[in-house]
Specification:
By secondary structure, the protein is an all-alpha fold. It folds into two domains: 300 residues, Orthogonal Bundle (Myeloperoxidase, subunit C), CATH 1.10.640; 82 residues, no CATH class. It contains 19 helices and two strands. The protein has a two-stranded antiparallel ribbon. The longest helix has 28 residues. It comes from Gossypium gossypioides (Mexican cotton). Keywords: Dioxygenase, Iron, Metal-binding, Oxidoreductase, Plant defense. GO terms for molecular function: heme binding; metal ion binding; oxidoreductase activity, acting on single donors with incorporation of molecular oxygen, incorporation of two atoms of oxygen; peroxidase activity. This is Alpha-dioxygenase 1-like.
């Protein structure tokens, strides 16, 4: 596919500097897989029977079989004897989902769009203009502006049932975030400058995917893998930065056997999927968002080399420009890791996810979440808080940055005496 080969294939790896690490990249992969499907039939119930060695040691009737540390949310059947296993599970899922949504809103997104204006905007979405201290003391006061979207008296759906759109799916195609290899760190030494561990070895990404990857990662171990990803910047969302190993991907069956036909992921998602699903091309996409369309390639980017390749592929017809190519080529706002066009869709859906959900509005209370669960949601401000809960040794020893989504050896945010809402945009 000419579009993918000429405009997307990685020629030289470009990363995001200290702004975003590989944990930030894996976080959004985790989120997208939870958010998006394409009308698959999810009504059919499938019975899963645990192997004997699992069933004997960890009966499925017990809440304790859930492996993730955060999922238990700090309570069990001893603290809530009136709740059966199913009710415990449902409360735990609700609490964990809310913590994830909060981290995504006021931590991950803030690092992705690293400006004071977006920091203020995301915190207003959750806490309102009156702020966290006021809301913690007096509860939700006023409408969405003063008190935030979270805690509104009732959901707001603007007359349309909530759903994620195909346009949303398209702007969240971010495989450029993936590097060519993971730099494993030596965690058995004293931390260096800014809590940085020395490099140990470099593992190519193809060795970390599929069944082979499962074996490799099990040998690496969770702590080394997590610390290594925290200290490595992810790829930048730009032209000619799509991982070449994803353009010759060996797909596997469920039994681990390699399929004979390799997959060019760049051509598949950048061109075929958007065109097949009738997602507008770049210029019409901007018109649909009431943004100014481009009339010449120079409106899109100042990169002369990129302009030459765009002309080679599309000629002078800017209307033919595929959406992903345009999003990657577009000159970015200072501090933004994504394009302005993508940002508009992000902005709309970030608010919509909160205001349309009764568990963030009318049922955002102790009755729905339990007292302890509601406290867990309200006191968690970042992924770093979660790490401090479950892996304090990682956080204390290896993280120098303010956010766990920034490269961990970056300096913490400097204190600013000017209140957030009074700062001038930089």
């Amino acid at each position: 596919m000419v579009v993918a080969t000429k405009l997307l294939t990685r020629t030289q790896y470009k990363d995001t500097g200290k702004q975003l690490n590989m944990i930030a990249a894996s976080w959004i992969q985790f989120m997208i897989h939870d958010w998006v499907d394409h009308m698959e039939n999810t009504n059919q119930q499938v019975e899963l029977i645990a192997p004997k060695e699992v069933a004997n040691k960890c009966p499925l009737t017990s809440f304790k079989f859930y492996p993730t540390k955060e999922f238990s949310t700090g309570f069990d059947d001893k603290e809530y004897p009136a709740l059966n296993d199913e009710e415990l599970y449902r409360h735990a899922r609700l609490i964990t989902s809310a913590v994830i949504a909060k981290i995504h809103t006021i931590d991950w997104t803030v690092e992705l769009l690293k400006t004071d204006m977006l920091l203020a905007g995301m915190r207003i979405n959750w806490y309102g203009f009156l702020g966290k201290k006021f809301k913690d003391t007096f509860g939700h006061v006023g409408g969405s502006t003063l008190g935030g979207l979270v805690g509104l008296k009732k959901p707001i759906n603007h007359g349309v049932p909530y759903t994620l759109t195909e346009e949303f799916t398209s702007v969240y195609r971010m495989h450029q975030l993936l590097p060519d290899s993971i730099h494993l760190r030596n965690i058995n030494v004293t931390p260096g400058l800014n809590k940085s561990p020395p490099s140990l070895e470099e593992v190519p990404m193809p060795d970390l995917i599929g069944h082979k990857g499962e074996k490799t990662l099990s040998q690496i171990g969770f702590t080394r893998q997590f610390v290594s990803m925290g200290h490595q910047a992810c790829g930048a969302l730009e032209l000619c930065n799509y991982p070449s190993w994803l353009q010759d991907l060996v797909a596997q069956d469920v039994d681990g056997k390699d399929r004979p036909d390799h997959v060019d992921f760049a051509a598949l998602e950048a061109v075929y999927r958007d065109r097949e699903r009738k997602v507008a091309r770049y210029n019409q996409f901007r018109r649909n968002l009431l943004l100014i369309p481009i009339s010449k390639w120079e409106d899109l980017t100042e990169d002369k080399e990129a302009i030459e390749v765009l002309k080679e592929v599309y000629g002078d017809d800017v209307e033919e420009l595929d959406l992903m190519v345009g999003l990657m080529a577009e000159k970015k706002i200072k501090g933004f890791a994504i394009s302005e066009t993508s940002f508009i869709v992000f902005l709309l859906m970030a608010s919509r996810r909160l205001e349309a959900d009764r568990f963030f509005t009318s049922d955002f209370n102790e009755e729905a979440y339990t007292k302890k669960g509601f406290e867990r949601v309200n006191t968690t401000e970042s992924l770093k808080d979660v790490l401090n809960r479950h892996y304090p040794e990682i956080s204390k020893k290896w993280i120098n940055s303010t956010s766990a989504f920034s490269v961990w050896d970056s300096p913490p945010n400097a204190p600013n005496p000017i209140p957030l809402y009074l700062r001038f945009p930089s």
